[in-house]
Design a protein that fits this description.
The protein has helices at residues 2-8, 11-34, 73-108, 111-126, 129-143, 154-167, 170-185, 188-195, 200-236, 263-270, 280-319, 323-329, and strands spanning 44-45, 51-52, 244-248, 254-258. The chain is mostly helical. The strands form two sheets. A two-stranded antiparallel ribbon has the order 1-2. The longest helix has 40 residues, at 280-319. The protein is elongated.
Length: 341
């Protein structure tokens, strides 16, 4: 609770948290009250009464213009916010929570499996995770077991996307948690507790848990940022949450369109426009994703600063004030009964 109170007093942490929570809640309320309706503009005409095909820039259709289908980009971003943040949070949770239990079991009950699992995690580190996730999702949703006449349903593709992005990181995080637990387990007070007869579960809940939970918050926010970056890479490669539908754009080309409209998907949809006369379309999801990652980074920096100051306070309490400083803080010598004769 003291950690939470200190974080709530940190302006940088509150700014990042408010940005993420605000985007998610506003998008969720828009879904509840307006059913994710995205306004579309009618065809515009020039001064010579010639039709002007979309997309329209922000100067013509403020604030962000329209996409190639005439949809208001501001509302596309609003609708996609909850899918982007919600999917990233869910994937992060599925990466971290199972890894905590696996890491504890590896450290206390399955030490013989720690080395093989560490080898697997190290091998994954040497393989580009974006390419691995792309190959797995591409095989599962397009060219592999689910490649049939009918396109897999939206729910099936969402589950596949979340499962693949979660499962490939569980070995890495399990080893990471096991290493953190091992570092805490080496502390002197735990050795004393073991000498006095404390069992494994008591050590876990009474001694390791208070040190492990703050580190898990740090791991959670780092994984959230990593998930957003991975989602952006997959979006550019044409892998979207909920799958892909193909529509013809103004160039009469079949364009991959995201079913959910999440930000990484819109980035992939509009990526090719970087090399056309409409580059601003690609920059809009890039800016939104960058702001989201910066908000999470602000939370991470604030959390690490608060934890660092907590450790310093603990060290001062444990080690005592230095002799030079202690002399200035001690009360001067006084008689117990100065006026007593």
């Amino acid at each position: 609770m003291r950690l939470v109170k200190r974080l709530l007093k940190n302006k940088l942490f509150l700014t990042g948290f408010s940005m993420i929570a605000g985007c998610f809640l506003v998008s969720l309320f828009y879904f509840i009250f307006f059913n994710d309706q995205i306004p579309s503009t009618s065809l515009l005409f020039s001064e010579n009464r010639k039709p002007l095909p979309p997309p329209y820039s922000g100067s013509v259709y403020p604030p962000f213009g329209t996409d190639e289908f005439g949809r208001d980009i501001a509302f596309v971003m609003l609708v996609g916010a909850k899918y982007t943040i919600g999917a990233a949070l869910l994937i992060t949770m599925l990466r971290v929570v199972p890894a905590v239990f696996i890491g504890l079991f590896l450290q206390f009950f399955l030490k013989e499996l720690k080395r093989p699992l560490k080898s697997i995690a190290d091998s994954i580190n040497y393989f580009p995770t974006t390419l691995l996730a792309f190959l797995l999702l591409n095989w599962a949703t397009r060219e592999g077991v689910f490649m049939q006449d009918a396109v897999p349903s939206f729910g099936v593709q969402v589950l596949l996307y979340i499962a693949v992005l979660s499962l490939i990181f569980i070995p890495l995080n399990s080893v990471l948690v096991a290493n953190e637990v091992e570092l805490i387990y080496r502390k002197e007070f735990i050795e004393c507790s073991r000498t006095l007869g404390a069992g494994t579960w008591r050590i876990i809940f009474k001694h390791i848990r208070p040190f492990l939970i703050p580190q898990l918050f740090v791991i959670f926010i780092r994984e959230f940022i990593q998930t957003l970056i991975l989602m952006s890479h997959l979006g550019i490669l044409g892998i979207f949450i909920g799958g892909t539908v193909f529509k013809k754009n103004l160039f009469d080309r079949g364009t991959a369109s995201s079913r959910s409209g999440e930000w990484a998907g819109t980035l992939g949809m509009w990526w090719d426009y970087l090399w056309t006369s409409y580059p601003w379309m690609a920059f809009i999801p890039i800016i939104f994703l960058t702001l989201l990652i910066l908000a999470a980074k602000a939370m991470l920096d604030s959390l690490e600063t608060v934890l660092s100051s907590e450790e310093q306070v603990t060290q001062v309490k444990d080690e005592g004030i230095p002799e030079s400083a202690r002399a200035g803080t001690l009360m001067p010598f006084r008689l117990l009964y100065p006026n007593k004769e």
